[in-house]
Write a structure and sequence with these properties.
Number of strands: 22
Largest sheet: 5 strands, mixed
Mean pLDDT: 82
Radius of gyration: 35 Å
Strand order of the largest sheet: 2-1-3-13-14
Length: 759
């Protein structure tokens, strides 16, 4: 009657004997071969050999971690990233010398024995008994391959790695069982191929292809005899035989491999002698890993792609699961990055801001209607050295960016205008807009409890010459603080909150914007990508599309490739077409004759808004055409630098304005990005100004209908401010910081006049 399986029948010792294929071997003998003296390790035979039938039936072979290649939209390589530097190749793409060398030194009877080399075991047992220790092992290439599978499955977890390599009889038994399975299922050539692809060759190189590139800067198929022998010798102890750090030891080991190949008849003794005299012939290549290798300044975009992968549930249910796929690699990621736009952005940044400057600049371009991120760059290169950074200023904290984003100032005011227009306020809406006023109260909120100005805080305009009443068009061009505060008081805070939610405008920290009137003045930090994407909704006539950076992903697993799902942009209507068209009309005026004149494009329809925050710690320009939207921020990441009497890009600025530094960066970046592209028009609306002729300021020049004089000059409380005129007017002076209950805002931002072309 046949013996029963687990639960009765064969004893553990009998099962082990069956497993080993020879009755004379027991767990204790195995321990003597594979391990130092049992007593010395404190190991006991009891419980060390698991029941053969209790082991899982199949070896779960994890996909080998490989390099990931990130491509731009045209298929050009941006960067390579990897957890382990490995490129899997087939046996036909590995030099025959390499195949023979690894077999000769690691398992010379590889093609003669099964999963277990009994002759080798007895030889090792005898030799170890004579030496009183472990001077020789008996693991076959197949067993070594299985052990490497355990290590690969452990990944970078030190606990799991220790378990995968622990010196126990139980682990050895497990290794032997799976070795039998692998021999039956794969065959010798496939085992050899897998082994050469999985094993570690030192110097961050996993697999023979990566090792060949690392030490000799060539493909594995092109390895010469002495080169193959060197690599084969490294495997036993990558640190001891590292040819980069110990040429003498590596040479001795290489020559041992060559001699062994001659003894086995793989090569002649003359060939071995000649190769032994040859120099190592190293031609090393430094490992190139990570976003620091990115071309065209796309390191920050590369990092953004990685963060998208690690954060989006489409790639796995948990961040840990997503990280496992990313570290496994073998991915070819086609992105949305437009090489023309990226090169233009980086060139513009380089031309206007030096990496050694006290301030930095970041620029991002997205495509309206699709959400595609086309370019992302910074003046300080991606890296870890002086005047470099790994912080992506274009994105929020959750995607590897700054903790809070950067205060946006008047670039926020179009959102308030859009909210009011959606509430039915006309484009000719007028408010008294005095030079200075208390924050109006009460102001309705979404929660029902009105906001009250408990501290009696006031808000001024930038210049004493700014005294209303004003209508929306002029108030937008001048960024009249009191106008937009009155607008918020009129419509309530909830419509503004609803508008910003529809445009996905949140703080750089990821938190929602605070429900306070000072929000109208752009007091909170927001990321440039967030601003570019929100303004893109104006360009696409009210449709907001979430930003996307990945077009497609294919993953190589062994010899197979499969496509992965990727996140898609979600587009939704944030405002009516009429509202968007009206905002476009308003913001086109800013570029045509307002503070954004230095940013304006001459060959196509464009619109935008400037911004300069309190104490000139941040300057912005956010603008767009019907087919591209871009945001440029200039400032100090630490928010400690006041951009006054400062050199930026080799140009001296007594005061930095949104129109004077960010504006030209945007202009040049967009010009290059749009070169050769179509130039569609906006759907503009007519905004009447019934009493334009009667509303003129009685200025120093006596002109009626234009505020052209020298009102206040630059020496007044906040500096002179005019529109369309005098040499002393029109500078971009921010309002002072005002502390409100529960909030702090850095004053309104953009240049409110054109005098001297400094808006």
């Amino acid at each position: 009657m046949p013996n029963k399986r687990s639960g009765g029948g064969l004893s553990a010792a009998q099962q082990a004997a069956k497993f080993l294929g020879v009755s004379v071997l027991s767990g204790a003998v195995l321990a003597g071969i594979a391990l130092p003296a049992v007593g010395a390790l404190g190991l006991a035979a009891k419980g060390s050999v698991e029941s053969f039938d209790e082991l899982p039936a199949n070896l779960k072979t994890p996909p080998l971690s490989q390099r990931t290649t990130i491509l731009d939209a045209d298929g050009g390589q941006i960067a390579t990233v990897y957890s382990r530097d490995r490129t899997v190749v087939s046996l036909k793409d590995i030099s025959p010398y390499m195949q023979k060398a690894i077999v000769a030194i690691e398992d010379s009877r590889f093609y003669e024995h099964g999963a277990i080399d009994l002759k080798g075991i007895l030889r090792a047992l005898n030799k170890n008994a004579q030496s009183g220790g472990v001077s020789e092992g008996a693991s076959t290439l197949t067993q070594q391959y299985v052990k490497n599978v355990f290590v690969e499955e452990a990944g970078d977890d030190p606990t799991k790695v220790a378990q995968a390599t622990q010196q126990t009889i139980g682990r050895k038994i497990k290794e032997l069982k799976y070795a039998i399975q692998v021999e039956e299922e794969l065959g010798k050539r496939k085992i050899l191929e897998n082994y050469l692809n999985i094993t570690f060759f030192g110097e961050q190189a996993y697999g023979v292809e990566a090792a060949s590139q690392r030490y000799f800067s060539k493909h594995a198929k092109d390895l010469k005899l002495q080169e193959a022998a060197l690599l084969a010798g490294i495997v036993q102890s990558p640190s001891r035989y590292d040819p980069v750090n110990d040429e003498a030891e590596a040479t001795k080991r290489r020559n041992t491999v060559l001699q062994r190949m001659a003894e086995l008849g793989d090569i002649s003794q003359a060939q071995a002698a000649k190769a032994q005299k040859a120099p190592l012939g190293l031609n090393t290549s430094q490992p190139k890993n990570g976003c620091i290798t990115a071309v065209k300044g796309a390191g920050f975009f590369c990092d953004y792609v990685r963060e998208v992968f690690l954060n989006d549930p489409v790639f796995g249910k948990s961040r840990q699961a997503r990280a496992k796929v990313w570290n496994q690699g073998g991915l070819t990621i086609r992105t949305t990055l437009d090489p023309q736009a990226q090169e233009s952005v980086q060139t513009s940044l380089k031309n206007h801001v030096n990496k050694s400057d006290a301030v930095a600049a970041a620029a991002t371009i997205v495509e309206p209607g699709t959400g595609k991120v086309l370019a992302m760059g910074q003046s300080k290169p991606y890296g870890y050295s002086k005047n470099e950074t790994e912080i992506n200023y274009s994105v929020g904290h959750g995607m590897g960016g700054s903790n809070y984003g950067f205060p946006t100032g008047s670039t926020f005011k179009p959102f308030v205008a859009a909210a009011a227009l959606e509430q039915g306020r006309p484009a000719t809406q007028e408010y008294s807009s005095p030079y200075e006023m208390p924050y109006p109260e009460p102001v309705q909120t979404c929660g029902g409890k009105p906001w009250m100005n408990q501290g009696g805080e006031t808000v001024p305009n930038e210049s004493r010459s700014e005294v209303g009443p004003y209508r929306l068009k002029e108030a937008m061009a001048k960024s009249v603080n009191t106008y937009f505060v009155q607008m918020v008081a009129d419509i309530g805070l909830c419509p503004v909150m609803k508008m910003t939610e529809g445009l996905h405008v949140v703080q750089g920290s990821g938190d929602k914007l605070p429900e306070v009137p000072a929000i109208a003045l752009g007091s909170k930090g927001i990321a440039p990508l967030t601003m570019a994407s929100a303004y893109a909704a104006f360009a696409s006539r009210g449709m907001y599309c979430t930003p996307v950076a990945i077009e497609s992903i294919t993953q190589k697993i062994g010899d197979r490739q499969k496509s992965l799902d990727v996140p898609k942009s979600t587009c939704s209507r944030a405002m009516s077409e009429k509202t968007a068209d009206t905002v476009n009309t308003l913001l086109q005026g800013v570029i045509d004759s307002g503070t954004g004149r230095q940013a304006g494009l001459t060959d196509r329809a464009n619109a935008g808004k400037t911004g300069t925050t309190d104490e000139r710690k941040n300057a912005w320009f956010v603008g767009y055409t019907p087919n591209l939207s871009g945001a440029v921020w200039v400032g100090s990441a630490s928010q400690q630098v006041k951009m006054v009497n400062i050199n930026i890009g080799g140009v001296y600025h007594d005061k930095v304005y949104g129109g004077s530094v960010p504006g030209p960066i945007w202009r040049d970046a967009m010009t290059g990005a749009l070169s050769g592209k179509e130039a569609p028009s906006f759907n503009l609306v007519d905004i009447p100004d019934p009493d334009k002729a009667d509303k003129g300021g009685h200025d120093d020049n006596g002109d009626h209908g234009n505020r052209n004089g020298n009102n206040g000059g630059n020496d007044g409380f906040l500096g002179g401010l005019t529109t369309n005129g005098g040499t002393n007017g029109g500078t971009d002076f921010p309002t002072p910081t005002i502390t409100l209950p529960g909030t702090f805002f850095q004053g309104q931002t953009n240049g409110n006049g054109n005098g001297g072309g400094r808006g």
